[in-house]
């Protein structure tokens, strides 16, 4: 049964930086075999469109990036280094080429393995290219609001691994929950 706290499409159809910050503290849920794997999102990076030289969308619409240009609230999953999958959440209205990379999760339920890094969290959650384009308002794979919790302090830093992106490498588009021990890097 679909949880009534699943984030609606309208949550994603907003400014990418706002969505990135608002994803912190939310729960990523993947249901399989009758078991719900749940992780609290503690670190993200915003990729703000084709003008952002660190974004995959800076190369335009390709078979790989077409999901980024699609409707908001879908998963953009790709393979890096031929080994690791990474998951992004598509944001803003269709045609913008924007997304938020999930960088780290704090385990909440039925989540084994290291979740401190985008490839590792995908491995622990069983996320791979088969979920590319998946609707994140679905019952089996979604992000939900766990309800009221204590306010969080958000740290803003430059993204990781994008030195090639010229001035975009220094922009504070990485966000994480201050003091959380599950972030990938301080």
From TrEMBL:
Enzymatic class: hydrolase
The keyword Cell membrane is assigned to this record: no
Gene3D superfamilies in alphabetical order: Methylpurine-DNA glycosylase (MPG)
NCBIfam families cross-referenced by the UniProt entry: 3mg
Species name: Noviherbaspirillum autotrophicum
Keywords: DNA damage, DNA repair, Hydrolase
One of the GO BP terms on file: base-excision repair
Protein name: Putative 3-methyladenine DNA glycosylase
Recorded family membership: Belongs to the DNA glycosylase MPG family.
Keyword DNA repair: yes
